[in-house]
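new request in #modeling-help
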Amino acid sequence: MTAPDVRAATCTVDGRPITLPQTGTESLWDVLEDHGVALPLGCASGHCGSCTVLLDGVPVPSCLVPHAEARGRSVATVATAADDALVAAMAEHGAVQCGFCSPGIVVTLSWLLRTTAAVGQPITADDVRNALTGHLCRCTGYTAVVQAAVSAASKISAASKAADR
Amino acid sequence: MPVPVGRRGVRPRDEAKLRGEHRFAAMLHAPGELHAATVRSPVARAVIRRVDTAAALTVPGAVTALTGADVPGRRLGSKVVDQPVLADREVRHAGEPVAVVVATSPRAARAMAAAVSLDLDVLPPLIDPRRALGPGAPPIGPAGNLVATARTCRGDARGRRVVRRTWRTGRQDAAFLAPEAGLAVPDPDGSVHLWVATQDLHADHQQVCRALGLSADELVLHHSGIGGAFGGREDITVQAHLVLAALRTGRPVRMVYGRAESLIAHPSRHPMLAEVELTYDDDGRFVSLRTRTLLDGGAYAHTSAPVTGIVHDFSAGMYRFAAVDLETTAVYTNNPPAGAMRGFGATQACFLIESTVDAVAAELDVDPVELRRRNLLEPGEPLATTGQPLTGCADPRAVLDAALAVAEPAGPPAYAARRGTGVALGIKSAGLGHGRPDPATAEVRLTPDGVEVVSAAADAGQGVEEVLRRVVGHHLPGVPVAVRAADTRFPTAGGSKASRQTMASGGAAARAAERLAGRLRDRARVLGRPVPDRWTPADLTALLGSDAVWCERVTLDEPRTGPDRPHKAFQVIAHRAVVDVDELTGECVVVQLVCAQDCGRAVDPVGAEGQLVGGTVQGAGFALWEERAVDAAGRQLTTGFGDYLLAGATDVPEVVPVIVEHPHPELAFGAKGIGEGPAVSSPAAVAAAVRAASGDPVPAIPLRRATPRVPA
Amino acid sequence: MTRHVFPATWEQAGHAALDGDAVVVGGATSVQPWLTSTGAQPSVLVHLRDVAGARSVDGMAGRLRIGAMVPVADPALRPVFGGTEPVWFATPAVRRRATVVGNAVSPFGPREVVPVLAACGARLVVLAEGGTRSIDVTAVPPNGLEPGAVACAAELAVPERIAFRRVALRPRLSRTEIGVAAALGDGCGAAISVGVGGPTLVVEGAAEFLRDPAGSPGFAAACCSAAPDPVRQLVGGLAVRVHRALHEPGGRS
């Protein structure tokens, strides 16, 4: 018997449906670029994290994903995955210089902040540094990024406590 | 409104960068665009018999293929015009561009590149720079293998004691995160417009025009978003190829490198081999310094000559020597070319002198910090190399004290690791120096709605845009300030290199704004209006009257340099590093890095701290992990971030910036360039910490791992 | 053009893998960079993501069966990695996608999980034209399984305790240059790996030394005898640390 080789070759990107190729070896990053969704691409090997997106809500460098693996899934770029408090804190702390790594870092750290806030945990600098493993930044030396994320997390936590009251 | 000079604040562009809305060069497109790819030499040295593009032109989507035969004798080079646009007759390093292919899709371009066949007569390459000037070395450069040499001899005193050491540094890459990219668009008027990520639009313009035989008005260069630079975008990569392809096809052409190509396409930091002899007296006073320093320039000159000058000028650090005998030489080899990288030779010089000072401290069994204090120049004393007085900067002791004042990390070292602390002092010039023209032009345009600063200065992330905004805002309080990036039809800002833009473009913009402020005050007096603390749109409307715009354009090249004053200003830096070294495995773990630097005045303190931290981490990477590995045949083995090891967030867990402010009397706001300083002395400090922890002499960096102590 | 198939059963997967130069895709974290960097265009990519049971971790009688789609970061695998996520493996994003089984058979990159799996006596369940077979996790050839073969699962002993110490340029983001892994439990033992991407070697006769709180010298000697000369001393030193970690789980080693 033959395996089914045609599935609905579509996914959503930031809520918008797009058609994926039926064939070919392009990565999800390539296909996003073809659809005018331009993400930074620093290595195409999963080391630098610049092209990170959420795939069904979980961060992954889009250069590591065969386009066919995105079939039937939702993709969120920084355009819809960014946490506003984090973005504000990163700008305030000088956590961005050239900005090439920034969208990927924002996607991952926004996810970290959301998932830890959801279980009511505080975030430490070590947690942030662990989460940043796989995101290379050549400009900032990471210090400001870590400070910004910790600061944003405490603001989010304070806000959610205030909301609970 | 701009944030006041010296105050912490947000840079307006940063939010767009964080949200992915900043347009980097690789994201630019034009209707009907074609895609180019480069074919590179697989060997380090060969005579080209034939470059056969016939098969490539049969690839579906193929448009054209360009080879050295299309641009015979055309050469690039910012200092020495020696680099072919495309190799003709011979190849001089592995990775040298031999052909450029153009197709209707990136994939087709890559397929074309793979189908180009090179018929090469491979020759034995010159790999060892020590052989370059010896008998029998093949000539690689246009007139022998000497690129540049500098010699300084002064005094003949000798101390009673002596240390001799040999130091080596490796082939560090700028490794900016956005690989090279550009888009060239032919204009109906016959000119070509090129958008590219570069440190210096005008230098690129001049080189490409000269190489391709274009008149100045036939090419316009525009800035795209720049994803980091660090010196690695100071030389030409995609620029000439794109312009050539656009002229040939009459269509827009874009080209984007991958990481592997980026890692071979731009020059690296110069590998250094230095033999050093330092004599001193029993009380630890230094007496003489002798160096014989060799820099591997690779196959083309690029910036080897000025790098040689910087290595030379700062080889004695900030120490007092009664006698120096220094010789610094850069040579051609068939290795990948070396050129500019953050520190521009001062990083290698710092490793050379600071490591030697530590060797003296070990011989005398004295505290390395105390030994430094004993031998540092007093402010105003002449540097041992150039004789230029150490002025316009903080006392190096004060910078050292600022670094040492930071608390050392608490807690014990990891299991079976020993902890070591190392200190290094760094010095580098800011600005080009040595009498070279170093102008920057900025224009400030005032309307009742606000002020616009026009400048061609490249903001690669280092923050010159924010500096321009703030210095102009300082003179025109209350007025909104926008910064507009000029293209090459506007005068040059000079390059974003040599830590110069805060002084150069910042200085020019400040002066222009100051003049506008003076004109406003004069007009107010004439009209009998009060001069307010903050200008309102109503004030400006009243004062400008029927003038639509007031404009001041300033070109600044101050203070001048020359034989008596080689350098405009000095960056003075102190680093302290704490490193744990595993006794068994030699694994090195960075625990804490402190960087104190005299910034003159930190116009944007958040940005300045970012420079200090980021440069320090680059330096730590140079000391421990980063190297473009090249094999014995001159072929680069390093192809990506799996083997070119950039520090990750967990590798540098604590980096502390300390801004020292000793205003420079001749510069606007007293603000000096600071960008390179943090990368000058952090490698030496990390190496010193590893020595302290492990006893490994660390004669060469990157170290990777310390030699483990052999258990007794 | 490369086709993509999504088999629902192992039978379909095995059939699809026989098609030309098919490449089997688990987490894809090494396959996609290989496709991108080489421009390779295999006839078909066989995606295992929808194969029934491929994502399950089944435990019984002290053994685990890890399906081919189980990622390295799966919490059910914590016992195999000493109770934590193996932070020495790649990056968090890669650990969430890269599969244990895929890494163990990958022809594209270093098989970082193999020393740990080998210490747990792991065997791979391989489906090929001739049927299903079981092979030792250390026995996969450097260039991967033969064409057409699909690794369906790994089967291994759940260790009572396990320790892994390695030499790498950096604690994270750097590949293992030398590794020593050892586990206590039925069917467990020790393994060393030497060289980035190098072979993993099972340390014969390690179990008795591992059990013995005073067995450190014997274990170190056993590891050394399996190691090539230049790194023998280093392997011995790591072995001492591994032994200590097994017997002083809370201690610093």
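bot summary: The longest strand of chain A covers residues 10-13.
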